[in-house]
Design a protein that fits this description.
Elements (H helix, E strand, L loop, with lengths): L1 E6 L2 E11 L2 E6 L2 E10 L3 E6 L5 E9 L5 E6 L2 E7 L1 H7 L19 E6 L6 E2 L4 E7 L2 E6 L4 E2 L10 E2 L4
Antiparallel strand pairs: 1-2, 1-8, 2-3, 3-4, 4-5, 5-6, 6-7, 7-8, 9-11, 9-14, 10-13, 11-12
Length: about 160
């Protein structure tokens, strides 16, 4: 199965095919890697990359509000990733998600609100960071799905939120 994956604004072609139980052949922009993968908890993965020159990584992959959108934590860094992001962007306006009407920004998992970067009445653009929350020992920026005006802000720094809140 081949995907187009956008990570921090950079697009990559990724093909994944099974190579045995828990083992995958992953081709990223033409470069082939053999990956042993095991799930750790709800969002965690343990990855052993290229068995002959092993590189072991622990990753957290957390789904976000939009389809195909995730936050990925690996090697102490958090990155936004969108699967088939370019194809989805072509459907919308100016790189937005094509969302219309009232849009809610919700927590993809339980966490602590660190910063709120928007106030009631603010004009925002698609993809603009609105709230930063800490979850699973990493900061996650929650972004606007579409351009619009902020109607309500229901959290403040220091608030603890549940998934979907």
């Amino acid at each position: 199965m081949t995907f187009e994956v956008e990570v921090n604004g950079r697009s990559r072609s990724v093909a994944v095919e099974a190579a045995g139980p828990g083992r995958f052949r992953v081709t990223i922009d033409g470069q082939v890697h053999l990956v042993d993968a095991a799930r750790i908890g709800e969002f965690g993965l343990s990855l052993m990359i290229d068995g002959n020159q092993p590189a072991s990584r622990e990753a957290q992959v957390v789904p976000c509000a939009g389809p195909g959108e995730t936050l990925v934590w690996i090697d102490g860094r958090t990155m936004a990733a969108a699967v088939d992001g370019r194809r989805r962007r072509r459907k919308g306006d100016e790189g937005g998600s094509g969302a219309e009407g009232v849009q809610s920004v919700v927590a993809p998992m339980p966490g602590l609100i660190v910063r709120v970067n928007a106030e009631v009445g603010d004009q925002v653009h698609a993809g603009q960071g609105l709230v930063v929350m800490e979850a699973m020992k990493m900061e996650n920026e929650l972004r606007a799905q579409a351009a619009g005006r902020v109607k309500a802000v229901l959290v403040a720094p220091g608030a603890v939120v549940e998934k979907g809140q």
